[in-house]
Amino acid sequence: MVTIDALLHVLHVLAAVTWLGGMAFAVLALHPVLVTRPIEERIPLIVPVLRRFFVLVGSSIAVLAATGAYFYFARLGVSPSLAGSRYGILMTAKFAAALAMVLVFLRIVFRHYAAASDLARRERPGSPRYAEIPVHLKRLTTLVRVNLALGIFVLLLVDLALRT
Description:
This protein is mainly alpha-helical. The chain contains five helices and no strands.
């Protein structure tokens, strides 16, 4: 029989895979191809792709927060001594790294994506302000790389915690 815990665990893993896999795809496959194209071809493609991906990430964050809180309090909330254990410390570090990922994601969306999409909507190719779009996209890509590294660190913490 499938339990609620099992279903929540599957949802948690799927949300993490969606976010991390999407970042890996963006950095390792999409970005290297897009940078070979002229900026006038890249912008109409990347802005809607990022919009869709960011909706997926936002949904993933909601699922990860809900399921993560459930598991944290279900496991650590019942045993205060567990919170000070190696497992508890690793899970707290995982939470801190995941929170950092969310903050980086918010910076990506509300600073760099918002600026790039606004400029793409209002400016025409060749205008001086249109040339600012690649700057925002470069910073966005750098932050996605940072988040991917943080996500891999989270996976390492989970692996270490599960081995305790």
